[in-house]
Specification:
Blueprint lengths: L6 H22 L13 H8 L15 E2 L7 E2 L7 E5 H7 L4 H4 L6 E3 L10 E3 L5 E4 L2 E2 L16 E8 L3 H4 L6 E7 L7 E9 L3 E11 L6 E13 L6 E16 L2 E14 L33 E16 L4 E24 L8 E28 L2 E22 L12 E2 L17 E20 L3 E20 L3 E18 L5 E12 L14 E12 L6 E18 L3 H5 L3 E19 L4 E16 L17 E10 L8 E10 L2 E7 L4 E9 L2 E12 L2 E8 L7 E6 L2 E4 L4 E9 L1
Parallel strand pairs: 6-9
Antiparallel strand pairs: 1-2, 3-8, 4-5, 6-7, 8-9, 10-11, 10-36, 11-12, 12-13, 13-14, 14-15, 15-16, 16-17, 17-18, 17-19, 18-20, 20-21, 21-22, 22-23, 23-24, 24-25, 25-26, 26-27, 27-28, 28-29, 29-32, 30-31, 32-33, 33-36, 34-35
Subcellular location: Cell outer membrane
InterPro entries: Beta-barrel_TonB, Beta-barrel_TonB_sf, Plug_dom, Plug_dom_sf, TonB-dep_rcpt-like, TonB_sidphr_rcpt
Keywords: Cell outer membrane, Ion transport, Iron, Iron transport, Membrane, Receptor, Signal, TonB box, Transmembrane, Transmembrane beta strand, Transport
Length: 741
């Protein structure tokens, strides 16, 4: 990977270069906690003694601590924002094969179904989530070329709802997903897992780790994974290979450095079948369109993705009150995509059986640098205890895309036109494609932030945060279209929150937070856009009795994003791709989520969300309607329970059962004359899905069978318009055998 820094990046890189040696020098001179004094490890080991840290593994379903909401090791009950943590046990019990599936029992999460190309047809409070790996941002691309994460790599998944720019910088206001990878540990990890399932599913997982030397100064982790399966439609398979080594060096109780690297390769085809509303949610005189219909091209369609990452996480504690952390992630993504997809019924066919298809070729390459420096100090001023966090972070992303497509009107004719009910696939060749477009985007962001967590006695906790960012964006498009745009933006974001711990496990809280998000897009004439802005008010009650294994959060929120792009009110300019920033989206609602280990055998997860997401300002008929580019059901509910026998002849046997309800959504009906929404009266029905699992553990062995959509319910997970509807995923059954030694 080759990354080039501008002057701001060089400055931060210099800081980074000096920080590690400086801390190491303090260590070698004995100016920090001594390696020979065991009592000085107290701060680092306290949470371990209690059985939990903010980033480590958690046994069971209930989590008490996280760093996602504060960037410090903080109890969830002291965080004035809604946070969910999906543990490794939950990921395994669900049988989740994607991050999307692992989040499906969490409040506020909706999805447009599964995709072989992306985890992120998932939305939080009506907005796309911001995605991080171990607290550092991953490459930001369009969904079809997005970074994908294999759940076998993960220790936990953290979901922070609402704006988080004060800690993480630019992002959408709905929520942030932090993916916590498996790390080296002193306790040995030796695991191999085999799996088979329907659709030809085969998998192999390997997880090894532990101390390298007797003193525990060095430890390692090696995660490997391979999977092959048939896609639910079409002739192609979906293959994945993952390898992720990591190494931790602990020269003393005060200093720790973890090096991480990884490689993931996907070789597949697009599973995104864009189908018309007539034949899915609306009647079609020819009948219902088959869920098994393949709308791609057997000889042309392909999707190849390679991901590489390299980074480190460094921490040095000068004493019990002062610590420095520095985290770095270099990530690289390459996508090679040939795709053919539906774009509604052909207006030339009155019989309503011919699909109008589009085809494109794109090659995307994205490189990202994410660097975060943190200085944490714990002290008191009188009776007030402080946890003060000062940070300086730098982010740089470079994205290059080469694309070609077949002119849209050619989709009405062979070989693109496809009979939906008796398909015949005619060859699609590269000579049919138009001229090439080259697009290059580069963005740098430098942010300085300060946060203070204040504790007023045993009951009251407050948090104050302030951040200032500078973001420089450059876009250059050549070839079939010409456009060049540059823009420098700056933004100040903040946060304030208050928590009262009543002493009986209940903790009411209130909070206010803001966000900003610069746009890469520009108008055809090169004019640029101001960043979108988000602000949210949130209030709720958390319940987590001391020493108990129950966690409950209820929240109400009111979130507004302004400066949203919407089509130019002039129809001709809109058809030419011009946009204006008069849009405003509002999301408000109520959610409740509970995790409970009722007994050692019974575990429960339950959630309910009511959300009202709408365009409160927009051009044309979109005003006062729900956005249709994301799924916005008003009601979402889920329940999961598991039971394990603890004694007798059934000792080691367990089972799980879950239900997921997603309310109705709406889509746009397109005016064929203008190709713009005419109205938003396309209704998509609600659906309920059932999941089940059976487990058996004996000695070092664990056997499991997981079934998702157990009843094989045929449903439409959403429609962006009457041209683009998605069938949801059918029944999936996977049996696994795991051996630990």
């Amino acid at each position: 990977m080759v990354f080039k820094f501008h002057r701001s990046g060089i400055a931060v890189a210099v800081l980074a270069a000096y920080a590690l040696p400086a801390a190491a020098a303090v260590e070698s001179k004995g100016e920090g906690p001594s390696r020979g004094k065991a009592e000085l490890a107290t701060v680092a080991v306290t949470a371990e003694a209690a059985g939990e840290t903010a980033t480590g593994p958690v046994k069971g379903y209930v989590v008490q601590r996280s760093a996602a909401g504060m960037k410090t090791d903080t109890p969830l009950i002291e965080t004035p924002q809604s946070v969910s943590v999906i543990t490794r046990d939950r990921i395994e019990d669900y049988g989740a094969r994607s991050v999307n599936e692992a989040l499906s029992y969490s409040a506020g999460v909706s999805t447009y179904g599964a995709s072989s190309r992306s985890d992120w047809y998932t939305y939080v409070r009506g907005f796309s989530p911001n995605v991080y790996l171990d607290g550092l941002k991953l490459p930001v691309t369009k969904n079809a070329a997005s970074w994908i994460v294999e759940p076998y790599l993960l220790e936990r998944i953290e979901l922070l709802r609402g704006p988080a720019s004060v800690l993480y910088g630019q992002g959408d206001p709905g929520g942030t997903v932090n993916l916590v990878s498996k790390k080296p540990a002193l306790k040995p990890v030796r695991e191999i897992e085999l799996g088979v399932g329907n659709h030809g599913h085969q998998r192999l997982g390997l997880d090894l780790g532990g101390a390298i030397d007797e003193n525990g100064e060095w430890s390692y982790r090696l995660v490997g994974f391979g999977r092959s399966e048939d896609l639910p439609t079409g002739p192609h398979a979906s293959d994945r290979v993952l390898l992720a080594p990591s190494l931790t060096w602990r020269p003393s109780a005060a200093t720790r450095l973890t090096l991480q690297a990884g490689f993931l390769k996907d070789d597949t085809d697009s599973s995104d079948n864009f189908l018309p509303a007539q034949g899915t949610v609306l009647p079609n005189p020819n009948g219902k369109i088959s869920r098994d219909l393949y709308t791609g091209d057997p000889g042309f369609s392909r999707y190849k993705k390679e991901q590489q990452w390299l980074g480190y996480q460094f921490e040095h504690r000068f004493d019990d009150a002062l610590a420095f952390r520095q985290n770095l992630l270099l990530s690289k993504l390459d996508v090679d995509n040939n795709s053919v997809y539906g774009w509604g019924l052909s207006p030339l066919d009155p019989s309503r059986r011919t699909l109008f298809r589009l085809a494109d070729i794109f090659n995307t390459s994205a490189e990202r640098v994410s660097l975060d420096n943190q200085l944490e100090a714990r002290f008191a001023t009188g009776s007030v205890r402080h946890t003060l966090l000062a940070g300086l972070d730098y982010q740089q992303q470079k994205l290059d895309e080469v694309s070609r497509n077949i002119p849209r009107m050619m989709g009405l004719f062979a070989p693109l036109a496809l009979d939906l009910f008796r398909p015949v696939y005619q060859p699609i060749t590269a000579d049919r494609f138009g001229p090439q477009t080259n697009k290059s985007e580069k963005q740098e962001q430098l942010g300085l932030y300060l946060q203070d967590q204040l504790s007023f006695g045993p009951r009251w906790t407050a948090v104050l945060g302030l951040r200032h960012d500078r973001a420089d964006t450059h876009t250059d498009t050549t070839g079939a279209s010409l456009n060049k745009a540059e823009r420098d933006d700056s933004a100040t974001t903040g946060r304030i929150g208050l928590v009262y711990q009543a002493g009986n496990g209940f903790a009411p809280y209130v909070g206010y937070s803001t966000s900003f998000l610069p746009y890469f897009q520009s108008n055809p004439d090169g004019s640029t856009f101001e960043p979108s802005r988000g602000k949210q008010y949130e209030a709720g009650v958390k319940y987590q009795p001391e020493g108990g294994r129950t966690s409950l959060t209820t929240a109400i929120w009111d979130l507004v994003q302004s400066n949203v792009l919407t089509g130019d009110p002039d129809a001709l300019r809109a058809a030419a791709g011009y946009q204006v920033q008069t849009g405003k989206v509002r999301s408000r609602g109520f959610e409740v989520e509970a995790a409970a280990e009722v007994t050692r055998q019974i575990k429960l997860i339950a959630s309910y969300t009511y959300q009202d997401v709408g365009n409160i300002e927009a051009n044309g008929p979109a005003k006062d309607q729900r956005p249709t580019d994301v799924p916005t059901p008003r009601n979402i509910a889920s329940l999961w329970g598991s039971y394990r026998f603890g004694q007798g002849v059934l000792n080691g046997l367990g089972f799980g059962l879950g239900a997921r309800y997603v309310g109705s959504t709406q889509g746009a009906r397109i005016d064929l004359a203008t190709l713009r929404p005419a109205d938003y009266k396309l209704d998509v029905p609600s659906y309920t899905l059932f999941d089940a699992a059976v487990y058996y553990e004996t000695g070092p062995w664990r056997f499991a069978v997981n079934a998702q959509n157990l009843a094989d319910e045929e449903y439409v997970s959403g429609c962006q318009s009457d041209r683009v509807c998605f069938y949801g995923k059918g029944r999936s059954v996977v049996a696994t055998a795991r051996y630990r030694w």
